[in-house]
Amino acid sequence: MIGDYCNNDKRLTNAQKSNVDGVLAQLVAKAPLDGFATASSGSGANGVYGLVQCRQDVSTEDCSTCTQDAAKEIQKRCPDQVDARIWYDYCFLRYDTDNFIGKLDAGYGIIYYNVENITGDVESFKKKERDLMNRVEKQAIALPMSRGLGKDKTDFSPFVTIYGLAQCTRDLSKLSCARCLAIAIGNFPKYCQNSKGCQVNYSSCRARYETYPFFFPLDPKHKALAAKGSTLRVLLYP
């Protein structure tokens, strides 16, 4: 699990609890069909809205497993909150009493960066990484054909490949997707600087680069590589 967010300013009432359960049941059932789903239950102050999105490169089975795990874990971690979100590598799930569907949300964020720094020509690495992220950002923005996902790789040296991924939730417009990814990728220099890897996760989008393969299909050239180095987490608040 990457992380979670439980809004303590929005407490769950008994009347809302059954609607949360209803939304989660819908999301778990619908997500594997297309890798993305929205749901709602109830109305007025007790109405609850939900969204789940799997990373579009993962299998249907992995999507289903991730969604089920997320639905169970979010209720454990946010038992008394009705604005709750949870991030995994393979999926993201949230619910709220406010109808957030189609709205850009780059407020609360979770950043991980590799504590190992780039070796060799740092400026050349950064340029390669920027060019790569520009490409995957453009791919992701090409909704609906892209299904919100962009992924690619580039060789930094004969022995080092940089892998990049960008994804928006599929309820967003192209403009909102572009804005969200611009914010996410814009955080790379600020928080990750010379790091070998970085990921920024918002409720509406995510962006990531690494020097090992992490998206599917795995690169056969470096398939045996494992994630190296420790990571640190940074939490961003609105």
TrEMBL record:
Q: How far does the signal peptide extend, from start to end residue?
A: none
Main localisation: secreted
Q: Name one GO cellular component term.
A: extracellular region
Print the keywords alphabetically.
Answer: Repeat, Secreted, Signal
PROSITE patterns from the entry?
GNK2 (PS51473)
According to the entry, every stretch annotated as the Gnk2-homologous domain falls at 1-100, 106-214
Output the InterPro entries linked to this UniProt entry. Answer: CRR_secretory_protein (IPR050581), GNK2 (IPR002902), GNK2_sf (IPR038408)
By its UniProt entry, which PANTHER family does this protein fall under? CYSTEINE-RICH REPEAT SECRETORY PROTEIN 38-RELATED, CYSTEINE-RICH REPEAT SECRETORY PROTEIN 55
* Protein family according to the UniProt entry: Belongs to the cysteine-rich repeat secretory protein family.
User: What is the name of the protein in this document?
Assistant: Cysteine-rich repeat secretory protein 55
Task: Say which species the protein is native to.
Answer: Cinnamomum micranthum f. kanehirae
Taxonomic lineage: Eukaryota, Viridiplantae, Streptophyta, Embryophyta, Tracheophyta
